[in-house]
Design brief:
Elements (H helix, E strand, L loop, with lengths): L7 E4 L15 H5 L5 E5 L3 E5 L3 E3 L3 E4 L5 E6 L2 E4 L2 E6 L2 E6 L6 E4 L2 E3 L17 E4 L2 E6 L2 E3 L6 E4 L3 E6 L2 E3 L1 E3 L1 E3 L12 E5 L2 E2 L3 E3 L3 E3 L2 E5 L2 E2 L7 E4 L3 E5 L2 E3 L10 E3 L4 H4 L4 E4 L2 E3 L29 H5 L76 H11 L1 E5 L5 E5 L4
Parallel strand pairs: 1-2, 2-5, 3-6, 4-7, 5-8, 6-9, 7-12, 8-13, 9-14, 12-15, 13-16, 14-17, 15-19, 16-20, 17-21, 18-22, 19-23, 20-24, 21-25, 23-26, 24-27, 25-28, 26-29, 27-30, 28-31
Antiparallel strand pairs: 10-11, 32-33
Family: Belongs to the polysaccharide lyase 1 family.
Keywords: Calcium, Lyase, Metal-binding, Signal
Catalytic activity: Eliminative cleavage of (1->4)-alpha-D-galacturonan to give oligosaccharides with 4-deoxy-alpha-D-galact-4-enuronosyl groups at their non-reducing ends
Length: about 425
């Protein structure tokens, strides 16, 4: 739902000078309002946060039509809220912040409360931190290079969908569940669908505790330790994904039960169904395999893993259509100019999401450099040109399948092709 039904709020000012008294026209001023808002951006911008951006209920942050980057101190916090949509935004190079007052609504500011033990003076530097919140949708975002997790959802959060996004250049990608002893996370339900976990991802895609998790139709092209991990008896339903193992012979396993004896984890409900295993990847299932056990971890019908290229080809931020002349440099992971830094100047470079993600992508192009405003294609593979609307429709048409049964014969599967 997000900000549906509310007025549009146009962000015109990329600054974040005062976390307590934000200027009208800034993203911070927009997200703290109490009424539903559909937040859009007047132009492409880099929003360098000084403190955590605390989002109020019923907000849609819609970056379509512009190149919107959120970076800096704390990044995005969803705390005791519901009905929030974050769409088409780059989130990266997030660092810890705190020891400061931060406004969370037009009538309240104070130290950010993020722990059941008391007030917390510093954030972890997550890209998106979801704390005791529900009905959250993160869609078509690019996340990379943060200090802690790219997305963390803890403390009883539920009703979360993470879809069509691109994750790269990060160690602990996604944490779902506070700790093994926090049983309030037992009701957590999260859907992870149509995402691409790409270059530089190490582990936690996701790492689950308690709860119910549907991992469906994602493309895992990189991990260094494992892809999906968990503890405290989470239910994990893996369907229609493609898992491409690294070359390391000791890192072929998709799954990891974290610090748990085998006699215990063999009772957990983890299943693989219709997944494609590439380069020696293997998934270790567990549990009793009873369909009823996965009812709360089943949010949509999976497509065949053979369609992963089509299903994830537009993962990440969608094609940016407005001219981008920002020409800025952002710090690397250690506040030095490093990987993922755009070139200075006033030229226009438009990234095209979903193409040339990495060298394992075959005909989709070569390496994708996580540049702030551009894309560098490597491995000798040429970049693909941006797809037209017509070609996109043709691709979708070839995916659609009509099934009908003749009177005297078996079912026939006929692809819907353009005439």
């Amino acid at each position: 739902m997000g900000g549906k039904g509310g007025p549009f709020y146009v962000v015109t000012d990329p600054t974040d000078l005062d976390p307590v008294t934000p200027r009208p026209g800034t993203l911070r001023h927009a997200v703290i309002q109490t009424q539903p808002l559909w937040i859009v951006f007047e132009s492409s911008m880099v929003i360098r946060l000084n403190e955590e951006l605390i989002i109020n209920n019923f907000k849609t942050i819609d970056g379509r039509g512009a190149s919107v980057h959120v970076t800096g101190g704390g990044c995005i916090t969803l705390q005791f809220v519901s009905n929030v949509i974050i769409h088409n935004v780059h989130i990266h190079h997030c660092v810890p912040s705190g020891n400061a007052n931060v406004r969370s609504s037009p009538t309240h500011y104070g130290w950010v409360f993020l722990s059941e033990f008391g007030y917390r003076t510093r954030s972890d530097g997550d890209g998106i931190s979801i704390y005791s919140s529900s009905k959250i949708w993160i869609d078509h975002c690019d996340l990379s290079y943060c200090t802690d997790g790219l997305i963390d959802a803890i403390m009883g959060s539920t009703g979360i969908t993470i879809s069509n996004s691109y994750f790269s250049h990060h160690d602990e990608v996604m944490l779902l569940g506070h700790n093994d002893n926090y049983v309030a996370d037992s009701g957590m339900q999260v859907t992870i669908a149509f995402n691409h976990f790409g270059e530089g991802c190490v582990q936690r895609m996701p790492r689950c505790r308690h709860g119910y998790f549907h991992v469906v139709n994602n493309d895992f092209t990189h991990w260094e330790m494992y892809a999906i991990g968990g503890s405290a008896s989470p239910t994990i339903n893996s369907q229609g994904n493609r898992y491409t193992a690294p070359t390391d012979p000791y890192a072929k396993e998709v799954t990891k039960r974290v610090e748990t004896d085998e006699r215990e984890w063999t009772r957990w409900n983890w299943r693989t169904e219709g997944d494609m295993m590439v380069n020696g990847a293997f998934f270790v299932p567990s549990g009793f395999g009873v369909e009823l056990q996965y009812a709360k971890a089943s949010s949509l019908e999976p497509h065949s893993s053979y369609l992963i290229d089509q299903l994830t080809m537009y993962s990440g931020v969608l094609v940016e259509t407005r001219e981008n002349n920002l020409g800025v440099l952002l710090p690397g992971p250690n506040n030095n100019v490093g990987p993922g830094i755009g070139n200075s100047g006033t030229g226009t470079t438009v990234p095209v999401a979903g193409q040339g993600r990495d060298s394992n992508d075959g005909d989709r192009g070569g390496d994708r450099d996580m540049g702030i405003f551009g894309m560098v294609f490597g491995s000798g593979a040429p970049p693909l040109s941006p797809p037209s609307i017509i070609s996109s429709l043709l691709i979708l048409c070839t995916i659609l399948i009509f099934s009908f049964t003749s009177i005297n014969g078996p079912p026939l599967l006929i692809p819907l092709l353009p005439s």
